[in-house]
Amino acid sequence: MNIIYIFGIAFALSIDAFAVSVIHGVAAKNLKFKEAFAIAFSFGSFQAIMPFIGWSAGFLFKEHIENIDHWIAFILLAIVGGKMIYESIFSKEEKNNIYNRNKLNIITLLMLSVATSIDALAVGLSFSLIDIKIFLPAVIIGSVTFFVCLTGVYIGDRIGSLLGKKLGIAGGIILILIGARILFSHIV
Question: Dihedral of CA 14/19/23/28: which sign?
C-alpha cells in the first residue's frame, strides 16, 4: 500500500480523536503541556495499538467485531457526552465538569481513547485480510493522531476561555453525534 494512502487513512482515523481533544482543551483550566501530552499520547497510543489488535484477530473474529464495535463506540461516547452535558448544565460552579478542569480524569480519557479508536481496529482487521504488514501503518496512524490531538487540545484551550460553559454543552453534543455517526455508518 502506498505511504500516501496510509497517511490519508491515519488522518481520517484521527478526526474523531481530534474533535474529542478540542473538547478536552475546552474543559481544561490552566492547561499544562503535561496534560496536553497525556491526552495526545493516550489517543495516539490507542490508535496505534488497535490496528495491531484488529490485524492479529484477522478473519477469525471479523464477524464478532463487526457486529458490536459500533455499539461499543456509541455507548461510550453517549455516556461521556451525556455526562458532559449534565455537568455543564447542572454544575454549581463553572469549574466543575467531567474533566474536573484542574485534573485529568484518566477513566474518561481511557474510555474516549477506546471509543475513538475502534475504527482503527477495523482498519487493522481489513489490513490483515489484504495481507498488508501492520507495523508501519500502525506507527503512522498513532503518530499522526498524536500530533493532530496535541494541536486539538491547544485549539480547544484557546476557544474554551472565550466561550466557557456553553462549549461544554456543545462538546457533549459533539461526542454523542460522533457516536451516532459511528453507529449509523455501521448500520447503514
Answer: positive
Closest to 13 measured CA to CA, from 124, 107, 174:
124
Question: Scanning the structure block, which residue is given the C-alpha cell 493516550?
Answer: 42
Q: Taking Cα atoms as reference points, which of 151, 154, 120 lies closest to residue 138?
A: 120
Asked if 127 and 134 count as a contact pair (C-beta separation under 8 A), the reply is: yes
What are the pLDDT digits (tens) for 33-45? 998 999 999 999 9
Residue type, 28: A
Cell of 66: 463487526
- The answer to whether 73 touches 183, Cβ cutoff 8 Å, is yes
Predicted TM-score of the model (pTM): 0.73
Q: Is there a contact between 174 and 78 (Cβ–Cβ < 8 Å)?
A: no
**CA 96 to the chain's CA centroid:** 22
